[in-house]
Amino acid sequence: xxxxxxxxxxxxxxxxxxxxxxxxxxxxxxxxxxxxxxxxxxxxxxxxxxxxxxxxxxxxxxxxxxxxxxxxxxxxxxxxxxxxxxxxxxxxxxxxxxxxxxxxxxxxxxxxxxxxxxxxxxxxxxxxxxxxxxxxxxxxxxxxxxxxxxxxxxxxxxxxxxxxxxxxxxxxxxxxxxxxxxxxxxxxxxxxxxxxxxxxxxxxxxxxxxxxxxxxxxxxxxxxxxxxxxxxxxxxxxxxxxxxxxxxxxxxxxxxxxxxxxxxxxxxxxxxxxxxxxxxxxxxxxxxxxxxxxxxxxxxxxxxxxxxxxxxxxxxxxxxxxxxxxxxxxxxxxxxxxxxxxxxxxxxxxxxxxxxxxxxxxxxxxxxxxxxxxxxxxxxxxxxxxxxxxxxxxxxxxxxxxxxxxxxxxxxxxxxxxxxxxxxxxxxxxxx
Amino acid sequence: xxxxxxxxxxxxxxxxxxxxxxxxxxxxxxxxxxxxxxxxxxxxxxxxxxxxxxxxxxxxxxxxxxxxxxxxxxxxxxxxxxxxxxxxxxxxxxxxxxxxxxxxxxxxxxxxxxxxxxxxxxxxxxxxxxxxxxxxxxxxxxxxxxxxxxxxxxxxxxxxxxxxxxxxxxxxxxxxxxxxxxxxxxxxxxxxxxxxxxxxxxxxxxxxxxxxxxxxxxxxxxxxxxxxxxxxxxxxxxxxxxxxxxxxxxxxxxxxxxxxxxxxxxxxxxxxxxxxxxxxxxxxxxxxxxxxxxxxxxxxxxxxxxxxxxxxxxxxxxxxxxxxxxxxxxxxxxxxxxxxxxx
Lengths: 432, 343
Prior knowledge:
Order of helices and strands of chain A: HHEHHHHHEHHEHHHHHHHHEHH
Oligomer: heterodimer
Number of strands of chain A: 4
Shape of chain B: globular
Distance between the termini of chain B: 61 Å
CATH superfamily of the largest domain in chain B: Periplasmic binding protein-like II
């Protein structure tokens, strides 16, 4: 058999056939690789496409032009012009009266309720701000663009059918008629949705914003950075440059690698037990969130830091030591600066990972409805991925597009952080 | 570098301990995700009035909420908890053991659980008994329990549509699932003579029989996210979904609710207690915190005001089914008088 095959191998025809088979095998192998990449790209493209097609409309917001009469009687403030009186005035009633005047034919309780539904229940804030800035407006009539109600907004964006008579439509035929009227008068428009970027969470989709979550994420990540960067770098330097090679350092090394693979929710439980129950830190605070996220990104930073230190050639160390530098001088003056770009890249990637975490934050109470914008890391706050999670779970239809918009904002920040990592590497990387 | 490290560490430690000593000036609420949309809406209105900070509301689930709520008294523990069922005796005892002696119970209103499908599907009129036959793991047949043989709706009753049984619903961790099992599966199980017998002889086996949902693909656990179920129903007209009424209300242009025992899941039917699959929702408050944490009494007053939980209040817009007038009045008096719950 063996002899036979060696004979066969030697004929040119058999060699050509075998060569052909090997080429075919290689083509198949490459095709499999390309298919895998195409599949992955396909999934990514579908994901991005769905998010963008769902979420782009959330960046615009419908508003309605209303002739608002600032009647002191309706405001219920009489002759009082003090800031306190202005803050507590009945702006909702002003909007109602103005709408009744604009649509004089509308009568009856339920019809009027439908009419008031054109404008968001939070539109009174706009008026309160106007009067606070300029009390002289009292007694005058102004045309004001007020935020439209969420169902009106959905209809204007085409997420709700505008054909009258459709069964089960959330807007009545009368409301659809009014939208038509307003459109003809040019009194309804779509503009950039500034609310989305300036306010905190709300149960009314048209008033809900991401700013609270962005600030919360910023505080959390700052704490994470402050805690885990020095700790991570110190650990990496010690293990790589100073630690003796023995059983103990091996155990520590294995444990650090294992920590990187621990599910993040476990760190949440740890945070609950240590920071909340033992140290008595406040629930839902970015301080605790940042500490928990620091525990999660620490192993990543240590591993990246050690890899970066390892990449510095031994000749640098030997040269420094040879010129009489102490070991510490060698590390701080020569090795660490050269390894820094790699360490920073690892840190940024670790932080990007931390930015996307929700599971550990559930345990420490950061998955919560928080309206007020946090002013310090001690105030309750949500973070961006938590906001995505909460909005995705809300029944209101208008939260569907806002969820996608929140994902886009989160992706934007992640993209920026990754871009920073790439630029840092490109600019400072040294090759030997 | 060493210096800045030390500064950072000291700063951190100070912040941490300052935090521990700090008293709380903001109401904290935990508990059920079903009550969450209503409690948050009240919290937002309450915060908007400007006298107090907006309460922080966490969505932890009913059981998780009671665990946190009953852990003790003091600023480290939440003031209120949402519940999609009444407090259990065991939970009440845990509370008492940890010093949470006086608990004020607030019934908020009702929530309906609906079986809904896409508008493109044929309308279904189903009884709870038929739902049991479609969804239970084992069904009674010829005097004993056999593994569920039904794969098509019309095998159960020729009047039901000739479509594959495919129901998307919540997982066992969800309060909606608990309520569905209690209101549909348990209630239906008691109408079968075989299971009735079993209840008398072996209560545990009976409980297992009605709470076990089929695992052969007829019932799909779709996770806690009801919006996901809504999207799947829209894409697949043959599937049915089980979720809270507010999601049907918000998507009434895409979905239709099936009639259960001849009653359609509408606002009026649930409010009039005609629709059989509905449950009361609750919020529990810690009496010991009133006066310690600012605003609790005012928050309860806002919740029980007509403009919130009334027939045309903003909670009704969010999908809460209000209690009848007399019941609301009765509860409002009890709650605002901070009457403690007795068990």
